[in-house]
Amino acid sequence: MSAATMLGASGGAGSSPNSQEMDMSDGKSILGFLKTLGRQPDDMLRFFDRKEYYVLQGRDADTVAVEYFKSSACVKYWGSGESAQPYLSVNHKMGAQIIRKALLEQRRRVEIYKMERGTQWILDKRGSPGNLQAFDEDLGLAHDTSPVLVSVRLGKTAGSKGYAGNQTLVGVAFIDCSARTVRAAEFEDDEHLSTLESLVCQQGTRECLLPAELTGPERKNLEDLMELCEVPSSVGKKGTFTAKDAEQDLRRLLGSQELHGRVFESAQGLALSAICAMIKYLDLLANVETHGQWSLDWVDSSQFMRLDSGAMRALSVEPQPGESDKNASLLGIFSQCKTAMGARLVRKWLKQPLLSRFDLEERLDLVETFARGFELRDLLRSEVLPKMGSDLDKLCRKFAAHKATLQDVVMLYHFVLQLPNLLSVLRNHDASSEREAALLKKRFTEPLHTAHHNFSKFCALVDAAVDISAAARHEYVLLPHFNAELAAADEAKEEVREKIEAHHEELRSLFGLDEKTLKLEQAAGFGYVLRVSRKDEQRIRNNSKVKGLTMLSTKKEGVLFRDRVLSSLAEEYSELCAAYDTAQRDIVGKVLDTTSTFCPVVSDCQTLIAELDVLLCFAHVSVSAPEPYVRPKLVPPEDALQRIVLRGCRHPCVERMESVDAFIKNDIELVRGESSMQIVTGPNMGGKSTYIRSAGVNVLLAQVGCFVACDEAEISITDSILARVGAGDCQSRGVSTFMAEMLETATILKGATARSLVIIDELGRGTSTYDGFGLAWAISEHLATTCGCACLFATHFQELTELAEKHPMIVNRHVSAHIEDGEMTMLYRVEDGPSDQSFGINVAEVAKFPTSVVDAAKRKLAELEDYSGFLSSESATKTRRALTAEEHAEGMNLVRTFLNDFSSLPLEGLSDVEASAALSRLQNELSASSNPIIVALCAANSEG
C-alpha cells in the first residue's frame, strides 16, 4: 500500500498525503508546548493526537517521512521562509503501524499528547521498548512478547556487607510490566561485567536505565555492553537511584505487610536502589489499580547456564534482524507451541538452560513420554490445547487492573470447561511404566484436578449470572432474571431480534439465495448486517424491490450491506443493547470483582498449561526432525571423566535448510584430560563453523531439557557456553575487528571454568599473521592447560596443530575435501589429525578468481615455502625433517618463549611508542639466535 493511501487526516481509502491542512494557530500551539518540554531525546518520537489523526512536528516529521514513507514529499510546513516548521499528519491506522515499528523493531521511545479541554496539551501515553503497557491493546502485540526493562547500579565490594576485596559490585532490577514482576540481584562481577551481560541476554531485556551520577569509563563500559546486547539505554534523573522510601513503596506494590526478609535484612543496597529507580522511572505508584498485584523475586545467576551475547548469536538462539527463514534459529524451530503462554515460555527456556541435573532429568522424562506416546501427543496438540486458547496471563492482568469485561469472564469459563477433557486425555494415557504414570500425575494431572475443583464456584457463578447462549452471538450480558428492568429489556431485545431474523428470511426468498450464501451476522461497528459473496453482489444491487440499499463494506470474504428495514431494526436493537448494558452495570461489576478472586488459580493453570505445551513442543520437534533427535545421557557430576560425547552430531538449524539435501553427521569427543580441546583445521566452506557450533547447540538443547540432534549423546552439565565467532568491526563503538576479537576473548578467558564449553572460530584474523598466530597459540594453550575447559578451536593457523604434540589433552581434527583435475569437492566429514594443506588457493579457483591472480598466488606460495621452516606444506616438512632433533626442539622453544612473552605484554597500558619499543626488544632477542628455524623465520619476515 502506498504512502498516499495511508497518510491523511480522515484515513479514508482515497485520502491523499496530508490532506488535512494545519493552520498557524495549531502549529503555534504545538510548537509552544514543545518548548516547555526541553530537549527531546534522539530516540524518541512525539505524536500529537488531533482526535481523527496524529501530527508529528519538526525532526519527527522528517524522520517518519524518510524512514517510513521513503519520501519527504509528504511533509508540509507551518509558516514560510526561514521560520517555516515541517509537520506531518497521519491517520490513526498508519500511526499505529509507525508506533509499533518504532517500539518493537527500532527500539525507540514514543509519547502521545492530547488536547485537554481544547486549551492545553497533556501526556496521554508513553511507551518504550521495555514498557509497552500503554499500547498493549492498540498494537496487537505478538503473543510471545513480554518486554523487560533493567536498571543497573555499580559499586565496589570494599566496605559492603558480606563482601571482601575491591571488586565491581552490581545491583540490578528487571521489571516485566506485563507480568507485573520485579526480579532483582546483587553480585560481584569482573571488569568485563560478564555476569551482567549474561543476565541481560537471558532475561529478554529490551531497555536499560542507568544512573545520572554514573560517569566516565564506568558509564561508557555499561553503554557499550548494552549496545553489544542490542539494548537501548537511557539515563534516569538525578536522585532516581535512592532507596529512601523503598520499604513503603514496595509494600504498596507487593501488597504484603511481610516483605521478603532478603529485601532489607541482607542490606543489598545496590539492588534495592535499582528497584526504586524503576518504580520512579515507570511511575508505578501512580497506577493505584495495580497496587498489591506485583511480585518480587531474586535472580540466582547460579541456577542457569551462563550465555553471553556472543554465545546467543553463535548458537542462533533467536532470529537475527531481517531473518525470514524460521529454520535459521532455535526459536524459529521451536515456535510450534499451541498456546500464547507456551510461546512465551519456550523463548524463556531457550535463554535459560538449567544446571540442575534432577530438574533436567524430569524434563527429559516427560519429553520422552510425549515423544513415545504418539496418540497422547497428537490428541493434546491437535484437539485439546487449541481449544484452550485463552491467554490466561493476559486475562489475569486485565482482572487485576480492573479492565476486564463479561467477555473475559466467558473466555475464562470456556477454558475451565476444557479442563475435564484435558484431564481425561492425561488419565487415559497408557503409561509404559509406573514411574512414567506417577510423573504425569505429579506434574500435571493432580495440579490440574485441584485447579478444576477450585473453579467449581466460579462455574456456578457464571451459570447463574451470565447468558451463555447470548455469548454465542457475541453478546456478553447477564441473565435477565436479576430484576424487572433487565427482564423487560431482554423481552424487547428478543422481539426485535425475531423481526430481524424474519426479515432475513424474506430477503433470502426475494433474492433466491440459500442461508449459506446470504448470511445474517453481527459486524463490529455496524451491528446486524447481511453478508453476500462478491460474485452475488450484483444480484442484490439489481433488485429494484429492495428499498434503501446501503453497501457498508467490501472485503475478501464478502460484501456487507443493509436495506432500509434492517437498518432501522439494527439501530433499534443496538439501542436496546445499550439500555440493557446500563441496567446490568452494577451487577456486572460484582461478577467481575468475584471473578478476579480466582486469579491465583488462573495463574497456576497458566504455568501448568505453558509447561505442558512447551514439553509437547520439544517432543514434536524431536520426532518430526529430518532425522529424529535422541535423549542425551547426562553425566553425573561425581564422574571423574567429565565429557561431551556426541555421536552422529548434526546442527538442528542447518539440517532443516532447503539447500541441504543430506546433512553429513560427525562425531565430537571432548573428554577431560584426553581430548578436552580440539584444534579444527581445513578449507573455508568445509564445515568447520557448523561442526563447532553443532556441539554448542546440542549442549544447549540438552540443558533446556530437550532431545538432541545426534545418534547418541553423553553430556556433562556445563556452567557456561562462551563463544568467539565472526570478525565484524564495531564501528559505532570505535572498535576495530582485532579489538573486538580481543575484548570478547578476554571475557572468555576471565569467565571460563573447567565446566565451561568454549567455541572459538578463526581467532586472530584481525591483525598481522604473526601477531594473530601468537595470540591464538597463547589463548588456546591457556584454555587447555590452565582453565581445563572443553573447547573447539577452528583455525587457519596450521602451526597451532603442533600444540597436540606438547599437551595430551589437545587433539587435531580437520574437515576433509577432495581435489581432482583442479576441481575441489567439500566432503564435510571431520577426520582425525591436522589438515595437510590449507586449500586457500583451491577455494579461490572455485570462486572463479582470474587465472592471473591464482597463478600469482601460487608463485608467491612457492616462494614462502622456501623460507618457512614450519609451514605444513610438503617441501617445508622435508626441510624441517632435515634439522637435528636438538635444533628443532631449540627453535620451537624459542618461538614459544617469544609468543608467551608477547602475549603477556600489558599492551592496554602502554603508549604506541612504548609498545613498539617492547616489541622491538623481543624481536631483537629472537633474531640474535643462530638457530636455523629462527633464521628462516626472520628471513621470511623481512622478505614479507
Automatic annotation (TrEMBL):
Keywords for this protein: ATP-binding, DNA damage, DNA repair, DNA-binding, Nucleotide-binding, Nucleus
GO molecular function: ATP binding; ATP-dependent DNA damage sensor activity; mismatched DNA binding
GO cellular component: MutSalpha complex
UniProt family annotation: Belongs to the DNA mismatch repair MutS family.
PROSITE patterns associated with the record: DNA_MISMATCH_REPAIR_2
Protein role: Component of the post-replicative DNA mismatch repair system (MMR).
PANTHER family given in the database record: DNA MISMATCH REPAIR PROTEIN MSH2, DNA MISMATCH REPAIR PROTEIN MUTS FAMILY MEMBER
DNA mismatch repair proteins mutS family domain segment(s): 756-772
GO biological process, one term: mismatch repair
Subcellular location: Nucleus
Protein name listed in UniProt: DNA mismatch repair proteins mutS family domain-containing protein
Region described as Disordered: spans on this chain: 1-22
Cytoplasm as UniProt keyword: no
